[in-house]
Amino acid sequence: MSAAFFEPSAPATQNGQVPAKVPAYGPGVALVIVDLQNDFADPRGSLSVPGGMEVVAVANDHLRRARSSGALVVYTEDWHPPHTPHFAPDGGPWPVHCVAGTWGAEFVPDLIVEGPVIHTGTGGEDGYSGFFVRDDRMGRVTPTELNGLLSASAVQSVVICGLALDYCVKETALDARRLGYEVTVIKAGVRAVDVRPGDGDRALEDLQAAGVELW
Ligand code: VGL
Ligand code: ZN
Question: CB neighbours of 43 closer than 8 A, spacing ≥ 6?
């Protein structure tokens, strides 16, 4: 853990206890809110993540703190064409979800959206990271605008919440580490799809092994 990244003076909770550490927002820090879209967060969504809606209030709380401190807030959105090898009808693993321009692709209505939005999956690729688009058919990896946005704001630390822990949150956090950022994942601000039971827990282990701080 990096000492510089956490502020000891966390706000007291109702019973007067002070949490051990809170991500310290400020210039050089970016909060990345991953895929808080209807299809993932809403129980009526086509790829609904259990408990997904509970994440929205956590994300809003963090984004208020981030914005008031001068930290950057960036959003990602899963943003697919109607047909893509990512979708089951086209031979992929997932039900049709987050098709560009549909209700399922919209941010959940309660999410405060104030900041740049990065769209991923737009070209029909099967990647999960907010940083890179991976097109396995073409053997091609293309960066999104995310790393450039962070560099332009001299970001060194990335705090991540959103959906789903075992896919887009995990891959975004691992790529952020590979790119040299200090990375914190907000545990209360993520939920797993758990296609296989335990995927969420394994994702947390993988993140920790890669040097990601779990808060
Ligand atoms: C995601 C599955 C398929 C995610 C996106 O945002 O985690 N998961 N597409
Ligand atoms: Zn997707």
Answer: 53
How many Å lie between the centroid of ligand 2 and the Cα of residue 97? 6
Structure tokens at 195: 């296609």
- Cα 154 to middle of ligand 1, angstroms: 28
176 pocket-lining for ligand 1 (C-beta < 6 Å): no
How remote is the CA of residue 57 from the centroid of ligand 2, in Å? 23
User: What is the rounded CA–CA span in Å between residue 27 and residue 30?
Assistant: 8
**Tens of pLDDT, residues 47-68:** 999 999 999 999 999 999 999 9
Sign of the four-CA dihedral 26, 32, 38, 43: negative
- Write down the pTM of the prediction: 0.91
Structure tokens at 175: 């790529």
d(CA 207, CA 202): 9
* Cα 185 to chain centroid, rounded: 9
